[in-house]
Amino acid sequence: MVFWVVPHSSSPVVRWPSLKNRLQSLCPSCSVTFYLNDQPSNYPASPVYLLKFFCLDRKGLLHDVTQVLCELELTIQKVKVTTTPDGRVLDLFFITDNMELLHTEERQHHLCKQLDAVLGDSCISCKLRLAGPEYDCHHGISSLSPAVAEELFLFVLSDKETRLQALSSDMTKLKKANVVVDNSLSPAHTLLQIHCVDHKSLFYDILRTLKDCNIKIAFGRFSPNSKGYRDLDLFIQQKDGKKFVDPEKQNGLCSRLKVEMLHPLRVIIANRGPDTELLVANPVELSGKGRPRVFYDVTLALKALGICIFSAEIGRYSSSDREWEVYRFLLDENCGFQLSSTLARNQIVDRVRRMLMGW
């Protein structure tokens, strides 16, 4: 596999040696195995650490901490953020280390030093330790109302402007894509031709969908961005090595790909009692992994809007026979937006979605 890549405009600095090491760790071993083993290989899961800090609150604090964790290649598994009435914040971050070095004193010291540079004198306490039973307690998400769940997990976007997920005019083109199945060019493979609007993580969304459908890719071509659009040619096979000749399976695959490409993330604003809540959801891979950097992008968008986060949490939620990763943010009413206004809410949703899609 050969990929020609460039740094994204939002992250111009790339740690190429670290990227190489992480790619090598994910690739299967090149060693030849001369015996059959019916038992699947069990790779030890990365240990989960609890980062707990208590400090004075300020605008953009949550994103600044998240940025430090991302730059240090620490993955946020769960988070619980609570603001006290006296303007202080208690943050619980459950994290794993992509470099598998967080057990060392040097790595822990470096993390604390970087956090101290961000928090400064506002930090009251900061502790890091292995997570215990409390990690399981924060694994799920608190219940969603039926109306919010229906709106959040819709498979298609509504065209009604009154819907909370209404798109701005220049975002409606995200709803356009073309997926064609062709069995005439290869005797052993089905050609999947995709033409759609480009967005951040598009390649991930397509490969994630094919992976979840147990589809093998033998050859592929990913064209450069042309006027905001991408073209992909993928020669694929079913799990049993056969082509896709059943029209029903072809239609099902095309429909699934369109949904996952055009609507990979769900973003809405809803009322949670007297408070205003921003919710973001994305489907979890069958492997159990969630979409990367969602928390980073959402907190960055809210920081740019000047909106403080009163509380936040990440959890899993099951709906429509799928598992979702749900991010919930209670927004501070003391901001420049009238959060009860439909126009203001749509502006916030639009800004968050743009950040997530790389627009």
TrEMBL record:
Residue ranges annotated for the ACT domain, each copy included: 50-133
Molecular-function GO terms, alphabetical: amino acid binding
Keywords assigned: Repeat
Pfam families referenced in this protein's UniProt entry, alphabetically: ACT (PF01842), ACT_ACR9_3rd (PF24931), ACT_ACR9_C (PF24926)
Family matches, as InterPro entries: ACR1-12, ACT-like_dom_sf, ACT_ACR9/10_C, ACT_dom
UniProt function note: Binds amino acids.
PANTHER family found in the cross-reference section: ACT DOMAIN-CONTAINING PROTEIN ACR (PTHR31096:SF14), ACT DOMAIN-CONTAINING PROTEIN ACR4-RELATED (PTHR31096)
Protein name (database record): ACT domain-containing protein ACR
Organism in which the protein naturally occurs: Gossypium klotzschianum
Lineage, top ranks: Eukaryota, Viridiplantae, Streptophyta, Embryophyta, Tracheophyta
